[in-house]
Design brief:
By secondary structure, this protein is an alpha/beta fold. The protein has two domains: about 140 residues, Rossmann fold (3-Layer(aba) Sandwich), CATH 3.40.50; about 110 residues, N-(1-d-carboxylethyl)-l-norvaline Dehydrogenase, domain 2 (Orthogonal Bundle). It is about 40% helix and about 15% strand. An eight-stranded mixed β-sheet has the order 3-2-1-4-5-6-7-8. The chain is globular and about 60 Å long. The termini are far apart.
């Protein structure tokens, strides 16, 4: 058994990372924000047949005995609270200063499709070993490249849908070019609220995505995003998204392309 680990965060990225760490031999605790998130996550695990695969807890104190702590939502104080010799603190946000006992990584795709994981230069050497345990390839970079490329692909997909394409048409075209899963299915895995937060931060919100988030279409974790996920299973086409996109295009005075 590998040393105990903790993953902090309430989104799908935190849950999939926690499960991946458990699958490679760590005893993992997933730290959630509140009792509501804990109950929701327990239900997701039960429906997926993974009850007991990871421990669930509320509050940063649950990371006290962990030798590896991953914070998925950019909250550096959570990592500061567990800093001590022998602990590797990993952040998925460039706001964390790298150094001994600290690592900053960028994950472009959720497990098990991790592929390449970027590690910010100056991070603790233990980060590369962690990435390999997860079945990915570590690449040390002076600054992150993948998030910008991923954002460009997401924005292009969203623009095509706004102009009349469907998510499944966009994904089929992307997969034919080697992007698997397609950008819409991948965005559903990560959570549409992440892209919406980026749009608001950058000052160019997309009407379709903004409405989806407002209506609770947050992706797989909510059971519906670009696709529907009946019973917590695989994605199925949701014709309602076509109507939503057409309505927003109409409000914007945009005629669908032939």
């Amino acid at each position: 058994m590998r040393p105990p680990a903790a993953v902090a965060g309430g989104g799908p990225r935190a849950l999939t990372l926690a499960l991946a760490l458990g699958d490679c031999g760590h005893q993992v605790t997933l730290i959630l924000d509140d009792a509501h998130d804990l109950a929701r996550t327990a239900d997701l695990l039960a429906r997926a047949g993974r009850t007991g695969a990871v421990g669930l807890a509320v509050g940063a104190g649950a990371a006290a005995g962990a030798h590896l702590v991953i914070e998925t939502e950019g909250r550096v104080p959570v990592l500061d609270a567990v800093a001590r010799p022998g602990v590797l603190a990993v952040g998925l946000d460039a706001g964390l200063p790298p150094g001994p006992g600290r690592a900053v990584i960028a994950i472009a795709a959720p497990p098990p499709d991790l592929g390449v994981i970027e590690i910010l230069a100056g991070s603790d050497p233990g980060a590369a070993a962690l990435v390999r345990r997860l079945g990915a390839t570590p690449v040390t970079v002076p600054r992150f490249i993948a998030p910008g490329l991923l954002a460009a692909v997401e924005d292009a997909a969203e623009a095509l849908i706004f102009e009349g394409s469907t998510p499944w048409e966009v994904d089929a075209a992307a997969e034919a070019l080697g992007f698997a899963p397609g950008p819409c299915a991948a965005q559903d895995r990560r959570g549409l609220d992440q892209a919406h937060t980026r749009h608001r931060r950058d000052g160019h919100p997309l009407p379709v995505l903004a409405r989806m988030v407002a209506e609770g279409r947050l992706g797989r974790k909510a059971g519906v995003g670009w696709y529907r996920y009946p019973g917590g299973g695989g994605h199925v086409i949701d014709p309602l998204i076509e109507d939503l996109a057409r309505e927003e295009a109409h409000f914007a005075g945009l005629a669908p392309r032939a």
